[in-house]
Amino acid sequence: MKEDRQLKTPFFTKLKEYALKDPIPFDVPGHKLGRIENDLIDFTGKQTYLLDSNAPIGLDHLSRPTGVIKDAERLMAEACIADKAYFLTNGTTVGIMAMIMATCKAKEKIILPRNVHKSVISGLIVSGAMPIFIKPTIDPDLGIANGVTYESVQEAIEKNPDAKAIFLINPTYFGVTSDIERITKLAHDNQMLVLVDEAHGAQFYFNERMPLTAMEASADICASSFHKTAGSFTQSSVILTKGKRIDHIRLRSTINMLQSTSPSSLLIASLDVARKTMYFEGPKRIDALLAMAQKAREHLKQIPGIKVIDKDYMISKGNFDFDETKVLIKVSDLGVSGFEVYQLMRKKYNIQLELAESHLVLAVLSIGTTQDDMNALVLAMKDLSKKYYKLRNKLPKIKFEYDYPKTYTRPRDAYHAPSIYVPLEEAYDEISAESIMIYPPGIPMVIPGEIITQEVIDDLQFYVKKGSVIHSELDNGYVKIIDKENWINWEDNQNEI
After folding, report:
1. pLDDT computed for residue 237 by the predictor
2. What stretches of 7-58 show up as alpha helix (H) in DSSP?
3. 2-278 and 283-391 share one fold
4. Please, which contacts does 12-16 make with residues 24 or more away whose CB atoms are closer than 8 Å?
5. Which listed CATH number (3.90.1010.20, 3.50.50.60, 3.30.70.260, 3.90.1150.150) goes with 283-391?
6. 180-189 and 150-159 helices, crossing angle to 10°
7. Are 212 and 196 in contact (CB under 8 A)?
């Protein structure tokens, strides 16, 4: 029976068995199962190091599993109603790159929303695929981009019938999902593959009240960050596939090209046990979590200056569905920015939030979240309201323009073009040769091949002043642009701008 199979943890069981036999280690890693004393062993104990093995006899090989890893991957696929699963120890970043590289060749088109993670852009650079960007829905009151509409995908397909694939986000960082089942059918009807970034949706597979999963929608392939919301170690993730459209030989080869040849046995074991826990405990514990979150939202809604962004709000804005394990709070009516609240929560209340935007903050919940955690969040927000709301110093209305930069050339061409570094303020109307983004969430404001606008410059300068982490190649206020004077493509194409 399925339940009997799901009780098993093939890899973790074998790994533990190996460690407890106290083998004489003449292989790597060099800590020799925890024999080298250090500060980490003093803190965690030797058990962690005992489980940090490097594919000894009986523990299988992640690059081409035939034993206990293969068994564990089969159980993961079964639990997630997928046909096949691939364990990843380099995160969903590698999963997304592998999905794109395994399905799209150089100059083939892929339709995707512009608010994708930086790993998608890396996949475009390495594969050479040509992005056809579609606009996500925008919430001007919150200043965030959400999902894509069926109509926008349909229009992109009609204009690009030769596209190889469609890439979707399910859900976005802020918990919004698109009509993934309907869009998948549309794509398949037009002989296009469907790739899904499900980094923030691993928990969807273990409770019927969660939004529809990529596999339930019959998407061809998705990457799911079990470490983000399903309890495995950071950097452990899974690729799931369904149907017969994916070339699994090419996919396996691509994963092996990108993934470490020395994968962490701890990460693999954590995927094995997280799957078992979520399969058996997820349904009830997610129910309890949703009830806990709803109660917290009700309390938060009573706090002056606090606005809770819930499912009703998201649906009213035209979004398809919303993940209620995300608690999104607009704080700007207190007269303080989301960035300030993010810092105050950590320094004053010992609460670590997931991220901040100019007018809001995000808390990510899982079955590891407790009632005490939620109580602390509510009490902290009440305290902030008492301190700041009475001042009535509201922040100005959000100025959120949907003007993502225009694409001049594909990311791969820009990445390999001759380049120079210039101060950010001098980069107006130049072609970017790098991805520049705020992290989290890691959505690029400009990518290689796009024209840097004044809006991009202004927004980056705004985030720098707010203390946000800017990911770019240099940290001294310079950005990398294409050296047009030495770029042969510039003379040929400059009239296209």
Report:
1. 98
2. 10-20, 39-44, 47-50
3. no
4. 12/72, 12/269, 12/272, 12/273, 13/68, 14/58, 14/59, 14/60, 14/68, 15/51, 15/53, 15/59, 15/265, 15/268, 15/269, 16/51
5. 3.90.1150.150
6. 20
7. no
What are the residue boundaries of the structural domains of the chain, listed by start?
A: 2-278, 283-391, 411-496
d(Cα 108, Cα 104) in Å, to the nearest integer?
6
Multiple choice CATH, 411-496, 3.90.100.10, 3.10.129.10, 3.30.70.940, 3.40.50.1820: 3.90.100.10
Angle at which helix 265-301 crosses helix 371-388, to 10 degrees, equals 50
Its pTM stands at 0.93
CB contact set of 426 (below 8 Å; sequence gap of 6+): none
Strand (E) or helix (H) holding 308: strand 307-309
Per-10-residue mean pLDDT of the chain, 497 residues long, equals 94 95 91 93 92 86 95 98 98 97 97 92 95 91 91 98 98 97 98 98 98 98 98 98 98 97 95 98 98 98 96 96 98 91 97 93 98 98 93 59 77 94 91 81 81 88 70 77 86 48
Cα–Cα distance measured from residue 166 to residue 380, given in angstroms and rounded to the nearest whole number: 42
Other Cβ atoms closer than 10 A to 444: 25
